[in-house]
Automatic annotation (TrEMBL):
Ranges of residues in domain SAM-dependent MTase RsmB/NOP-type: 167-455
UniProt keyword list: Methyltransferase, RNA-binding, S-adenosyl-L-methionine, Transferase
Keyword Methyltransferase: yes
Protein name: SAM-dependent MTase RsmB/NOP-type domain-containing protein
Gene for this chain: LOC123144384
Pfam families cross-referenced by the UniProt entry: Methyltr_RsmB-F (PF01189), NSUN5_fdxn-like (PF21148), NSUN5_N (PF21153)
Binding residues for S-adenosyl-L-methionine: 256-262, 280, 307, 327
Any one GO BP annotation for this protein: rRNA base methylation
C-alpha cells in the first residue's frame, strides 16, 4: 500500500451524512485544512497530466516524459502530482476493471475519466479523503460497490491481495542508488564513514570514487548532496569521464556540457588542475551547468555559451587542448525517465519503426557525426570520448564507423575503455569490439562510449615524459615540417576536407 500523500487529521465525511457537495471549491476550500486543499488540487493537476500521458505526450516519440509534464509551470504541487500520476498509472488496469465491473460507471463520467481514475486510486488504494468535488462525492458514494468489485476480481483471479493483481510488467528491477564522491570537496573514505551509519555502502568495482547504496535510498536532500560532496550520478554516466581519463594539468573541452555532471567529474579526475572549457549551446541549460560547477567547488572550469561547431579548431586558444568529451544531444532512448516507461500504456510507448522517430534519429545522427568530426579536428587532441545515452545503432556504432576514415587520417584509432566490461559495441564493423555499451535493463541505463586515442599519443604514453607540453610541441613540429611546403600542406587540408564532406554528406 503506498504511503499517503499527506497525513490527514480529520476523518472522511460519511457517505449519506455529508452535506451536499460544494460547487464553488474556492469558497468552500477556505474552510478546509491546507492538506485537504492541496490534495484536492493535486488530484486535478494529476488528472490533467494523466490525460496527456494517456494520449501519448509522455512517450519518447513525443520527446516528453511524465516528469517533463509534471515540471510544466502550470503544475504547482509537483511532488504530490508526480506521485499520484505514477501510482494511478500503476493501478490503472485494475481501476478500469473495477469501474467497468461495478456497473455504476456511467458515460456521464467519461469526460472526467482521468479525474475519476486518480480519485478512485486515492480512495481505494491511497488514502481516505474528505468529500470535496463532485467526482470525490461520486467515488465515495460508490466506494463499497467498488471495493466489492475489487474483491470479486481477486477471488476470480485466485489472488489474496491487490498487490498480486498487479501484473508482472509493473514490477521493476530494484535500482541501486549510485553516488559519485566529489573528490574536490571530500574523500571517499569520509563519505563512506558518514553513509555507513545509516546504510549498507559498497564501493563500485570499476569506477573509482563511486559508491553503491541499497535501492530506494533517498539521497536527494542529504547534506552530502546539497553541499556538492557527492553527486547523484549513475554508474554508466560516470564511466564516460573515467574513460576519457584526462591527466591533471591538461586542457580539456567538454563540448556539449549541460547540466554539467560529466564536466565536474572531469574536474575531479584532474584534481582541479589544468583547465576545462565547458561549451553549451542552450542559455537556460548553461545556467544549470554553472550551478553544477559552483556546487562542485571546481575553479578550473570556464563556461562558453555557444555552438561547439563554431569553435575554430585553428584558434590558438584551443591549440593545447589534449582531450575532448563529446556527449551530444541524443534521443535519450537508453534512459527510461527514472524507469517509469513501464507505467506508460503500450500505445504511447515509442515505436522505433515509427517514421517520425526515424526522422528525428536521422537528424540527431547527422549532428552527432558533424560534432564528432569537428572534435577529431582539434590539432593537439590525444584522447576523445564520444558518448550517448541512446540505444540506437544509428546514434552509436553508425556515427563512429562513419568518422573512422577521418579519424585514421588524423592518426586516431579506437581504444578499449574498461576492457573488463563484457558488453561491447554491436558487431557491425571491424573494431566495434572496442566500443562499450551498457544495457538499459541489466545495467539500468543504456549508454554508449567510444574512445579515440591518437596513435602518436599512445606511442608517447609508452615513453612517459614529465613534460606536460611535449606531445603538443612534437605534433606542432610535425605540422611545421608538413607545412614547410605549401603544396604538401594544402593537399593535406584538401584531403581532410574531402573526408569531412563525405561524412557530412555534402
Ligand atoms: C546529452 S546533454 C549533455 C549532458 C552532459 N554531458 C552531462 O553529463 O551532464 C547534451 C547537451 O548538449 C547541448 N548541445 C546541443 N548541441 C550543441 C552544440 N552544437 N554546441 C554545444 N552544446 C550543444 C544541449 O543543449 C545539451 O545540454
Amino acid at each position: 500500500m503506498p504511503p499517503p500523500l499527506k497525513n490527514r487529521s480529520h476523518a472522511p465525511a460519511k457517505v449519506g451524512q455529508s452535506r451536499p457537495p460544494p460547487r464553488q471549491p474556492g469558497r468552500w476550500m477556505a474552510s478546509r485544512d491546507a492538506g485537504e486543499r492541496a490534495a484536492f488540487f493535486a488530484r486535478r493537476e494529476a488528472a490533467t497530466v494523466l490525460r496527456r500521458v494517456l494520449r501519448g505526450d509522455a512517450s519518447k516519440r513525443s520527446g516528453g516524459s511524465i516528469k517533463s509534464l509534471v515540471f510544466s509551470p502550470s503544475v504547482r504541487n509537483k511532488r504530490a502530482t508526480f506521485a499520484l500520476v505514477c501510482q494511478t498509472l500503476k493501478y490503472l488496469p485494475i481501476l478500469k476493471e473495477v469501474l467497468a465491473s461495478s456497473g455504476v460507471f456511467s458515460s456521464k463520467w467519461k469526460k472526467q475519466e482521468e479525474l475519476v481514475y486518480v480519485t478512485a486510486y486515492d480512495i481505494l488504494f491511497g488514502q481516505e479523503i474528505a468529500v470535496s468535488g463532485s467526482v470525490e462525492e461520486y467515488i465515495m458514494l460508490h466506494k463499497d460497490t467498488f471495493r466489492t468489485a475489487l474483491q470479486k476480481i481477486c477471488v476470480k483471479r485466485k489472488v489474496s491481495n491487490v498487490e498480486d493483481l498487479l501484473s508482472e510488467k509493473t514490477t521493476v528491477k530494484p535500482k541501486p542508488r549510485f553516488v559519485r564522491v566529489n573528490t574536490l570537496k571530500t574523500t571517499t573514505g569520509s563519505v563512506i564513514e558518514v553513509l555507513s551509519k545509516m546504510h549498507k555502502v559498497d564501493k563500485d568495482d570499476m569506477v573509482p570514487d563511486m559508491l553503491v547504496l541499497p535501492p530506494g535510498t533517498d539521497m536527494h536532500k542529504h547534506p552530502l548532496v546539497t553541499d556538492g560532496k557527492v553527486f547523484l550520478q549513475g554508474k554508466a554516466s560516470c564511466m564516460v569521464a573515467a574513460a576519457l581519463s584526462p591527466k591533471p594539468g591538461w586542457k580539456v573541452i567538454d563540448a556539449c556540457a549541460a547540466p554539467g555532471n560529466k564536466t565536474v567529474h572531469l574536474a575531479a579526475l584532474m584534481n582541479g588542475e589544468g583547465s576545462i572549457i565547458a561549451c553549451e549551446l542552450n542559455k537556460e541549460r548553461a545556467k544549470t551547468l554553472q550551478h553544477t560547477v559552483r556546487r562542485s567547488g571546481a575553479n578550473n572550469i570556464e563556461t562558453v555559451i555557444g555552438d561547439f561547431l563554431n569553435i575554430d579548431t585553428n584558434d590558438p586558444s584551443y591549440a593545447e587542448v589534449r582531450a575532448i568529451l563529446l556527449d551530444p544531444s541524443c534521443s535519450g532512448s537508453g534512459i527510461s525517465t527514472e524507469r517509469l516507461d513501464h507505467l506508460l500504456p503500450s500505445y504511447s510507448i515509442d515505436d522505433q519503426d515509427d517514421a517520425g522517430s526515424s526522422a528525428r534519429i536521422r537528424k540527431l545522427s547527422a549532428f552527432q557525426r558533424k560534432a564528432l568530426s569537428h572534435a577529431l579536428s582539434f590539432p593537439s587532441v590525444e584522447r576523445l570520448v564520444y558518448s550517448t545515452c541512446s540505444i540506437h545503432q544509428a546514434e552509436n556504432e553508425d556515427v563512429v564507423s562513419s568518422v573512422l576514415p577521418l579519424a585514421s587520417s588524423l592518426g586516431f584509432e579506437l581504444a578499449t575503455p574498461f576492457p573488463q566490461w563484457m558488453r561491447r559495441g554491436l558487431p557491425v564493423f571491424d573494431g566495434a569490439q572496442h566500443l562499450l555499451r551498457t544495457d538499459p535493463e541489466d545495467d539500468l541505463e543504456g549508454f554508449f562510449i567510444a574512445l579515440f586515442v591518437r596513435k602518436a599519443a599512445a606511442a608517447d604514453a609508452l615513453e612517459p615524459s614529465e613534460d606536460g607540453g611535449a606531445l603538443g610541441r612534437k605534433r606542432k613540429r610535425a605540422c611545421t615540417t608538413r607545412s614547410g611546403g605549401l603544396r604538401a600542406f594544402s593537399s593535406l587540408r584538401l584531403s581532410r576536407m574531402d573526408v569531412l564532406c563525405s561524412i557530412w554528406g555534402i
